[in-house]
Amino acid sequence: MRQDRRPYWVKKNYLRFRAWYTQHFLKPACDYLGDYPTFMKPWYISISGPNIEIGKCATVIGEPDNRVKIGVWGADEKSGRIKIGDYVLISPGTRISAAHEIIIGDSVMMANGVYITDSDWHDLYDRSSRSNALTPVHIANNVWLGDRCTVLKGVSIGENSVVAACAVVTKDVPANVIVAGNPAVVVKTLDPNIEMKTRADYFAEPEQLEKFFDGVDKMVLQENGFFNWLRALVKPNKSD
Ligand SMILES: CC(C)(COP(=O)(O)OP(=O)(O)OC[C@H]1O[C@@H](n2cnc3c(N)ncnc32)[C@H](O)[C@@H]1OP(=O)(O)O)[C@@H](O)C(=O)NCCC(=O)NCCS
Protein backbone atom coordinates (compact mmCIF):
# COMPACT_ATOMS: atom_id res chain seq x y z
CA MET A 1 0.00 0.00 0.00
CA ARG A 2 1.36 3.41 -0.97
CA GLN A 3 -1.36 5.42 0.78
CA ASP A 4 -2.76 5.32 4.29
CA ARG A 5 -6.47 4.93 3.49
CA ARG A 6 -7.55 4.74 7.12
CA PRO A 7 -10.04 7.34 8.27
CA TYR A 8 -8.57 9.58 10.98
CA TRP A 9 -10.75 8.03 13.69
CA VAL A 10 -9.63 4.48 12.74
CA LYS A 11 -5.97 5.44 13.10
CA LYS A 12 -6.72 7.29 16.33
CA ASN A 13 -8.38 4.18 17.78
CA TYR A 14 -5.52 1.99 16.55
CA LEU A 15 -3.05 4.27 18.38
CA ARG A 16 -5.23 4.15 21.51
CA PHE A 17 -5.27 0.35 21.37
CA ARG A 18 -1.49 0.28 20.86
CA ALA A 19 -0.96 2.55 23.86
CA TRP A 20 -3.33 0.42 25.95
CA TYR A 21 -1.47 -2.77 24.97
CA THR A 22 1.85 -1.19 25.99
CA GLN A 23 0.52 -0.07 29.36
CA HIS A 24 -1.35 -3.33 30.00
CA PHE A 25 1.20 -5.93 28.89
CA LEU A 26 4.66 -4.33 28.61
CA LYS A 27 4.72 -1.77 31.42
CA PRO A 28 4.15 -4.46 34.08
CA ALA A 29 7.07 -6.42 32.59
CA CYS A 30 9.36 -3.50 33.50
CA ASP A 31 10.43 -2.27 36.94
CA TYR A 32 10.03 1.16 35.42
CA LEU A 33 8.77 2.47 32.11
CA GLY A 34 8.90 6.23 31.63
CA ASP A 35 6.20 8.49 30.20
CA TYR A 36 5.51 8.94 26.50
CA PRO A 37 6.55 5.49 25.28
CA THR A 38 6.01 4.87 21.56
CA PHE A 39 5.95 1.11 21.20
CA MET A 40 5.06 0.30 17.59
CA LYS A 41 3.44 -3.12 17.04
CA PRO A 42 4.07 -3.81 20.73
CA TRP A 43 2.75 -7.38 20.34
CA TYR A 44 6.09 -8.14 18.65
CA ILE A 45 8.13 -6.79 21.58
CA SER A 46 9.11 -9.13 24.38
CA ILE A 47 10.38 -7.99 27.77
CA SER A 48 11.31 -10.74 30.22
CA GLY A 49 13.16 -11.20 33.48
CA PRO A 50 13.69 -8.99 36.55
CA ASN A 51 15.09 -5.47 36.99
CA ILE A 52 14.38 -3.91 33.62
CA GLU A 53 14.05 -0.13 33.45
CA ILE A 54 13.30 1.95 30.36
CA GLY A 55 13.29 5.74 30.53
CA LYS A 56 10.87 8.27 29.08
CA CYS A 57 10.12 8.86 25.38
CA ALA A 58 11.37 5.45 24.28
CA THR A 59 10.65 4.46 20.68
CA VAL A 60 10.63 0.67 20.30
CA ILE A 61 9.58 -0.93 17.01
CA GLY A 62 8.44 -4.53 16.76
CA GLU A 63 7.92 -6.35 13.46
CA PRO A 64 6.47 -9.84 12.97
CA ASP A 65 9.64 -11.13 11.32
CA ASN A 66 11.95 -9.05 13.51
CA ARG A 67 10.86 -9.09 17.11
CA VAL A 68 12.54 -6.93 19.73
CA LYS A 69 13.72 -8.98 22.72
CA ILE A 70 14.84 -7.37 25.94
CA GLY A 71 15.64 -9.99 28.55
CA VAL A 72 17.45 -10.52 31.82
CA TRP A 73 18.49 -14.05 32.65
CA GLY A 74 20.61 -13.80 35.79
CA ALA A 75 22.28 -16.47 37.90
CA ASP A 76 19.13 -16.58 40.04
CA GLU A 77 15.63 -15.28 39.57
CA LYS A 78 16.30 -11.85 41.13
CA SER A 79 19.71 -11.00 39.70
CA GLY A 80 20.78 -9.30 36.52
CA ARG A 81 19.53 -5.99 35.21
CA ILE A 82 19.01 -3.82 32.17
CA LYS A 83 18.76 -0.06 32.56
CA ILE A 84 17.90 1.92 29.46
CA GLY A 85 17.90 5.72 29.57
CA ASP A 86 15.52 8.33 28.15
CA TYR A 87 14.78 9.02 24.46
CA VAL A 88 16.22 5.75 23.10
CA LEU A 89 15.41 4.23 19.72
CA ILE A 90 15.22 0.44 19.56
CA SER A 91 14.63 -0.83 16.02
CA PRO A 92 13.17 -4.16 14.86
CA GLY A 93 15.18 -7.29 15.55
CA THR A 94 17.21 -5.76 18.38
CA ARG A 95 18.12 -8.15 21.18
CA ILE A 96 19.43 -7.01 24.54
CA SER A 97 20.35 -9.97 26.77
CA ALA A 98 21.77 -9.47 30.24
CA ALA A 99 23.14 -12.05 32.66
CA HIS A 100 24.53 -9.40 35.00
CA GLU A 101 24.29 -5.76 33.91
CA ILE A 102 23.67 -3.78 30.75
CA ILE A 103 23.39 -0.02 31.14
CA ILE A 104 22.35 2.06 28.14
CA GLY A 105 22.40 5.86 28.29
CA ASP A 106 20.05 8.57 27.06
CA SER A 107 19.36 9.15 23.34
CA VAL A 108 21.08 5.92 22.29
CA MET A 109 19.95 4.74 18.84
CA MET A 110 19.88 1.05 17.93
CA ALA A 111 19.36 0.22 14.27
CA ASN A 112 17.80 -3.02 12.99
CA GLY A 113 19.12 -6.28 14.35
CA VAL A 114 21.48 -4.92 16.98
CA TYR A 115 22.65 -7.52 19.52
CA ILE A 116 23.96 -6.50 22.95
CA THR A 117 25.01 -9.13 25.45
CA ASP A 118 27.05 -9.06 28.67
CA SER A 119 27.77 -12.78 28.71
CA ASP A 120 28.96 -15.66 26.54
CA TRP A 121 26.23 -17.68 28.26
CA HIS A 122 28.29 -20.92 28.18
CA ASP A 123 31.65 -21.80 29.69
CA LEU A 124 34.37 -22.43 27.09
CA TYR A 125 35.33 -25.79 28.62
CA ASP A 126 32.11 -26.80 30.32
CA ARG A 127 29.43 -26.31 27.73
CA SER A 128 26.78 -27.67 30.07
CA SER A 129 27.10 -24.79 32.56
CA ARG A 130 26.72 -21.07 32.10
CA SER A 131 29.59 -18.62 32.29
CA ASN A 132 29.53 -16.77 35.63
CA ALA A 133 32.09 -14.07 34.84
CA LEU A 134 30.89 -10.55 35.66
CA THR A 135 31.34 -8.62 32.44
CA PRO A 136 28.90 -5.67 32.38
CA VAL A 137 28.23 -3.63 29.26
CA HIS A 138 27.95 0.17 29.49
CA ILE A 139 26.83 2.27 26.56
CA ALA A 140 27.04 6.02 27.15
CA ASN A 141 24.65 8.79 26.09
CA ASN A 142 23.97 9.42 22.41
CA VAL A 143 25.76 6.35 21.06
CA TRP A 144 24.52 5.18 17.64
CA LEU A 145 24.65 1.43 17.06
CA GLY A 146 24.46 0.66 13.32
CA ASP A 147 22.53 -2.02 11.51
CA ARG A 148 23.19 -5.59 12.74
CA CYS A 149 26.15 -4.68 14.89
CA THR A 150 27.03 -6.74 17.95
CA VAL A 151 28.29 -5.49 21.30
CA LEU A 152 29.90 -8.26 23.33
CA LYS A 153 30.56 -8.83 27.03
CA GLY A 154 32.54 -6.38 29.13
CA VAL A 155 32.47 -3.55 26.60
CA SER A 156 32.02 0.16 27.42
CA ILE A 157 31.24 2.58 24.61
CA GLY A 158 31.89 6.29 25.17
CA GLU A 159 29.51 9.20 24.58
CA ASN A 160 28.45 10.05 20.99
CA SER A 161 30.41 7.22 19.42
CA VAL A 162 29.07 5.35 16.39
CA VAL A 163 29.32 1.63 15.73
CA ALA A 164 29.20 0.97 11.97
CA ALA A 165 26.86 -1.53 10.36
CA CYS A 166 27.75 -5.19 11.04
CA ALA A 167 30.65 -4.31 13.35
CA VAL A 168 31.47 -6.65 16.21
CA VAL A 169 32.60 -4.70 19.27
CA THR A 170 34.85 -6.78 21.52
CA LYS A 171 36.84 -4.03 23.29
CA ASP A 172 36.08 -0.65 24.89
CA VAL A 173 35.35 2.23 22.52
CA PRO A 174 36.33 5.80 23.52
CA ALA A 175 33.93 8.74 23.23
CA ASN A 176 33.41 10.59 19.91
CA VAL A 177 34.74 8.01 17.46
CA ILE A 178 33.39 5.70 14.76
CA VAL A 179 34.34 2.03 14.98
CA ALA A 180 33.85 -0.53 12.23
CA GLY A 181 34.72 -4.08 11.27
CA ASN A 182 35.15 -7.38 13.03
CA PRO A 183 36.69 -6.95 15.53
CA ALA A 184 35.68 -3.28 15.53
CA VAL A 185 38.48 -0.71 15.37
CA VAL A 186 38.43 3.10 15.27
CA VAL A 187 38.09 4.31 11.67
CA LYS A 188 37.24 7.97 12.27
CA THR A 189 37.04 10.64 14.96
CA LEU A 190 34.03 12.95 15.34
CA ASP A 191 34.67 16.68 15.14
CA PRO A 192 34.08 18.13 18.64
CA ASN A 193 33.47 21.60 17.12
CA ILE A 194 30.30 20.50 15.34
CA GLU A 195 27.24 20.86 17.55
CA MET A 196 25.52 17.53 18.21
CA LYS A 197 21.71 17.29 17.96
CA THR A 198 20.30 14.36 19.89
CA ARG A 199 17.01 12.60 20.41
CA ALA A 200 16.78 14.47 23.72
CA ASP A 201 16.51 17.70 21.68
CA TYR A 202 13.86 16.15 19.43
CA PHE A 203 11.75 15.07 22.43
CA ALA A 204 12.28 18.27 24.43
CA GLU A 205 8.51 18.90 24.47
CA PRO A 206 6.90 15.48 24.07
CA GLU A 207 3.33 16.71 24.60
CA GLN A 208 3.73 19.29 21.84
CA LEU A 209 5.24 16.63 19.58
CA GLU A 210 2.26 14.33 20.14
CA LYS A 211 -0.11 17.19 19.33
CA PHE A 212 1.88 18.00 16.20
CA PHE A 213 1.67 14.42 14.87
CA ASP A 214 -2.01 14.24 15.73
CA GLY A 215 -2.53 17.43 13.71
CA VAL A 216 -0.66 15.91 10.76
CA ASP A 217 -2.80 12.74 10.93
CA LYS A 218 -5.96 14.83 11.07
CA MET A 219 -4.89 16.85 8.04
CA VAL A 220 -3.74 13.87 5.95
CA LEU A 221 -6.47 11.36 6.83
CA GLN A 222 -9.58 13.47 7.38
CA GLU A 223 -10.87 13.00 3.81
CA ASN A 224 -10.56 9.20 3.99
CA GLY A 225 -13.92 7.46 3.95
CA PHE A 226 -14.69 4.28 5.88
CA PHE A 227 -15.98 2.24 2.92
CA ASN A 228 -13.11 3.25 0.65
CA TRP A 229 -10.72 2.09 3.38
CA LEU A 230 -12.53 -1.29 3.55
CA ARG A 231 -12.41 -1.51 -0.25
CA ALA A 232 -8.66 -0.80 -0.23
CA LEU A 233 -8.16 -3.58 2.31
CA VAL A 234 -9.97 -6.28 0.32
CA LYS A 235 -9.42 -5.03 -3.24
CA PRO A 236 -6.44 -2.67 -3.41
CA ASN A 237 -5.60 -0.99 -6.70
CA LYS A 238 -2.55 0.88 -7.96
CA SER A 239 -3.69 4.19 -6.51
CA ASP A 240 -3.78 2.64 -3.04
C1 LIG B 1 29.19 4.36 10.64
C2 LIG B 1 28.80 5.12 9.38
C3 LIG B 1 27.56 5.99 9.68
C4 LIG B 1 30.00 6.01 9.06
O1 LIG B 1 29.76 6.71 7.86
P1 LIG B 1 30.89 7.71 7.29
O2 LIG B 1 31.23 8.72 8.35
O3 LIG B 1 30.44 8.22 5.99
O4 LIG B 1 32.16 6.75 7.18
P2 LIG B 1 33.10 6.52 5.93
O5 LIG B 1 32.34 5.96 4.79
O6 LIG B 1 33.95 7.74 5.74
O7 LIG B 1 34.03 5.33 6.47
C5 LIG B 1 35.21 5.52 7.19
C6 LIG B 1 36.03 4.25 7.03
O8 LIG B 1 35.35 3.17 7.70
C7 LIG B 1 35.05 2.11 6.77
N1 LIG B 1 33.68 1.63 7.08
C8 LIG B 1 32.55 2.36 7.18
N2 LIG B 1 31.50 1.59 7.52
C9 LIG B 1 31.99 0.35 7.65
C10 LIG B 1 31.40 -0.88 7.98
N3 LIG B 1 30.09 -0.98 8.28
N4 LIG B 1 32.18 -1.98 8.05
C11 LIG B 1 33.53 -1.88 7.75
N5 LIG B 1 34.14 -0.74 7.44
C12 LIG B 1 33.38 0.36 7.38
C13 LIG B 1 35.09 2.76 5.40
O9 LIG B 1 35.41 1.84 4.40
C14 LIG B 1 36.19 3.80 5.59
O10 LIG B 1 37.43 3.14 5.51
P3 LIG B 1 38.72 3.88 4.83
O11 LIG B 1 38.97 5.09 5.69
O12 LIG B 1 39.78 2.85 4.89
O13 LIG B 1 38.30 4.24 3.46
C15 LIG B 1 28.47 4.19 8.21
O14 LIG B 1 29.67 3.57 7.76
C16 LIG B 1 27.48 3.08 8.57
O15 LIG B 1 27.81 2.04 9.11
N6 LIG B 1 26.20 3.35 8.22
C17 LIG B 1 25.08 2.49 8.58
C18 LIG B 1 24.23 3.24 9.60
C19 LIG B 1 23.00 2.46 9.94
O16 LIG B 1 23.07 1.33 10.37
N7 LIG B 1 21.84 3.08 9.77
C20 LIG B 1 20.59 2.42 10.06
C21 LIG B 1 19.54 3.39 10.55
S1 LIG B 1 19.68 3.79 12.28
UniProtKB/TrEMBL annotation:
Record has Acyltransferase as a keyword: yes
Keyword set includes Transferase: yes
CDD domains per record: LbH_MAT_like (cd04647)
Transmembrane portions of the chain: none
Record GO terms (molecular function): acyltransferase activity
Record key words, sorted: Acyltransferase, Transferase
Protein's UniProt name: Acetyltransferase
Taxon lineage: Bacteria, Pseudomonadati, Pseudomonadota, Gammaproteobacteria, Cellvibrionales
